[in-house]
Every structure is written in structure tokens, then in C-alpha cells.
Design goal:
Layout (H helix, E strand, L loop, with lengths): L18 H27 L4 H18 L5 H40 L1 H6 L7 H20 L5 H20 L2 H35 L1
Helix pairs in contact: 1-2, 1-3, 2-3, 3-5, 3-6, 5-6
Length: 209
């Protein structure tokens, strides 16, 4: 996972090093975490993150410069360190966004959406349990924000997102989705049935009345 080594050094060594190995580490050890966060965001929000695209673009720019023959070893080291920074940001932002939005969804469902459980003939969640879960999630998000710019920030935001996801799964189990689907289907059938009935009566009157 992320480390902070080298990123805060004011001067990078100008001794030559294995640049390809350093780039391979960026792509195999750091990029997968950013990719997972970005894909999770796209699946949940059904839209692409422009910020993540910018961070990935900047990462490729730094890799390109680091591998150029005209780039000194010290500058190459600096650009490799910048890759770590951009990929860390690309991972943090989606996890933070997901954690915050799921936090709000939990709050809406538990506080203002209790009537939904009554319609579905299900036991609503215990308020104190939800409040406790929300406090833990909020605390983890705050920890992640405080730690931004450090190696721990990605893991903290990932944990906040995981906690929010697990809480939502408790509030909306499989039975919740199944009953909600059937209610929506019944309501949709009634709503669509009215204009269809009127149309059929009109046609009957027109042709046979």
C-alpha cells in the first residue's frame, strides 16, 4: 500500500536507478487501489469521475517524463513520487464520495424513510443502532480527512466506505428490495391501467357504441 518515503524529501538523489522497476511498482502496487475506487464510484453513481480522470492523466504524464532519457535521475525520482501522490488522490476521492453519499442515504432511510418499512410490512431499524453506526462512519471519514496527504488516508476512507456499505446492506436486505420491487410493480400496474382502461372504453364507444 502507500508509503510516504521520498515524497517529502526536498532533494532527491541524482544517482541513477531502475526507472522501469519504479514505474512497474507504481502500476502494480498503487494503480490497482485507485482503479478499484474509481470503478466502485462509477457503479454506484452511474457516472464517471472527472477528477479521477485528471489524476490518472497526470500520473501518465509523470511516468512519461520519468522514463525520458533527457530527464535526470533526481527529476525522475520526483516524478515517480508525484505518481504516488496522484494515484493516492484518485483512490481517496471516490472512497470519500461513496462514504459520504452512503452516509446520507442511511440517514434519510433511517430518519425520514421509516414509513417505507411500514408499507413493506417490515420492522424498521432501531434508531439508536443506526445513530451509533453513523457516528462510527462519520468518525472514520474525519480520520481520513485529517490524514489526507499521508499513506493512511486511502485505507481510512476505504474503511469508511466499507462500514457505510455494510450498514446499508443491513437496512436494505434482500427482502427489502424484493418487496419494494413488488410494491412498485403493483403501483405501476394501477397507474398504467387507468389510461389503458379509458382508452379501451373510448375505442369501444367509438366503434361499437
Amino acid at each position: 500500500m502507500w508509503t510516504d518515503a521520498g515524497e517529502d524529501d526536498p532533494v532527491f538523489s541524482n544517482d541513477e536507478f531502475d526507472r522501469l522497476a519504479a514505474v512497474a511498482e507504481v502500476l502494480t502496487e498503487y494503480y490497482p487501489h485507485a482503479k478499484q475506487a474509481i470503478l466502485s464510484l462509477e457503479v454506484y453513481s452511474k457516472k464517471r469521475s472527472q477528477r479521477a480522470v485528471y489524476e490518472l492523466r497526470d500520473t501518465l504524464d509523470h511516468i512519461s517524463i520519468a522514463l525520458a532519457k533527457t530527464t535526470s535521475p533526481a527529476e525522475a525520482r520526483r516524478h515517480i513520487a508525484e505518481c504516488h501522490t496522484h494515484l493516492r488522490r484518485a483512490a481517496i476521492e471516490p472512497f470519500e464520495w461513496l462514504a459520504e453519499h452512503k452516509f446520507l442515504e442511511i440517514e434519510r432511510l433511517a430518519v425520514r424513510g421509516r414509513w417505507i418499512y411500514k408499507i413493506l410490512l417490515m420492522q424498521p431499524p432501531e434508531g439508536y443502532e443506526v445513530v451509533s453506526e453513523l457516528e462510527k462512519i462519520a468518525g472514520k471519514i474525519v480520520e481520513g480527512r485529517v490524514a489526507k496527504g499521508t499513506a493512511a488516508s486511502v485505507q481510512l476512507m476505504r474503511e469508511a466506505c466499507k462500514m457505510a456499505t455494510e450498514c446499508l446492506e443491513k437496512l436494505k436486505p434482500k427482502q427489502f428490495h424484493e418487496r419494494l420491487f413488488h410494491v412498485a410493480l403493483c403501483v405501476g400496474g394501477v397507474v398504467l391501467g387507468i389510461p389503458i382502461t379509458i382508452l379501451l372504453e373510448h375505442l369501444w364507444t367509438h366503434f361499437f357504441g
